[in-house]
Amino acid sequence: MSEDNLPPLREVINHYELQAKKKLGQNFLTDLNLTGKIARSAGKLDNSIVYEVGPGPGALTRGLLMNGASKVIAVEMDHRCIDALVDVSNAYEGRLIVHEGDALKIDELALIGDHKDKDILIVANLPYNVGTALLVKWMAVDQWRPWFKSLTLMFQKEVGERIVAKPKTKAYGRLSVLCQYRAKTEILFDISPRAFSPSPKVTSCIVQIIPRDENIDAPTQKILEKLVSAAFNQRRKMLRSSLKSLNTDPLPKLMAAGIKDTARAEELSVGDFCKLAKEYEN
Ligand code: SAM
């Protein structure tokens, strides 16, 4: 028996015959000490609503509840996991709501409903195959500050490094700019492949993303996204050439933003991208 009087995760996985499915990006955590550490790193759990994607057999969910989360709303796509999650929900009466569905398609606020003055924390061990798409869905909202207070997410280390990357590094790209232009990003700690069942090939990490207040000079997300995609799609080319795909002469825009036309995408700071996006907005 583990601390919460539910059976250990390995027993749950065997009991409900939850053989991991690759196509659902399933690598399950089984150590409640580790999931407790992830839960505590997410911030104040007792007066917030936690939105969790992909609870699977419930390792992170239990870590959250054992560490004081007053309400967890979880979305899981794999029907086989639902009974295991109902057991967790029964053990933590009224504190866990499980919804079967695809997180990519869900309207989170409709699901969460009235949350009054509670913060919403997104916490998830994301399926590798949809992790980046979900991150972009959450970060690409027009309305800023967004509906969530923070994201505490597990990614493959390589993806985490792209999120926090600085200019002039190989990892710096579209994801770095889109996350950093209006949020603080940080890798909190790494997680060894040995922590999972089955073990993935690569190391994972916990990334935290905390939205900042929007700067009044910030460009709209859509224009920045177009610009950054054009620039990094041809990252080895100079901007005067790669930005031609936006169908406007890039030279006056680059000049107005004070950026050399011979610069390449990875040399621009996040601030440079914002300045340039503003020129495209005008
Ligand atoms: N949170 C569990 C843990 O830490 O052990 C499981 C993590 S596993 C990496 C990813 C989970 O996300 C799986 O349970 C999988 O079924 C679920 N999943 C995959 N795609 C999903 C989607 N589009 N929407 C909701 N859940 C999804």
Describe the protein's architecture and organization:
By secondary structure, the protein is α/β, with parallel strands linked by helices. The protein has two domains: 9-211, Vaccinia Virus protein VP39 (Rossmann fold); 221-281, rRNA adenine dimethylase, C-terminal domain (Helicase, Ruva Protein, domain 3, Orthogonal Bundle), CATH 1.10.8. The protein is built from twelve helices and nine strands. The protein has helices at residues 9-15, 32-41, 59-66, 82-91, 108-112, 131-139, 157-164, 174-180, 221-233, 239-242, 250-256, 270-281; strands at 28-29, 48-53, 71-76, 96-100, 119-125, 150-156, 183-191, 196-197, 204-211. It has a seven-stranded mixed sheet. Strands 1-8 form a two-stranded antiparallel ribbon. The protein is elongated. The mean pLDDT is 95. Residues 24-29, 53-56, 59-60, 75-78, 81, 102-104, 125, 127, 130 line the site of S-adenosylmethionine.
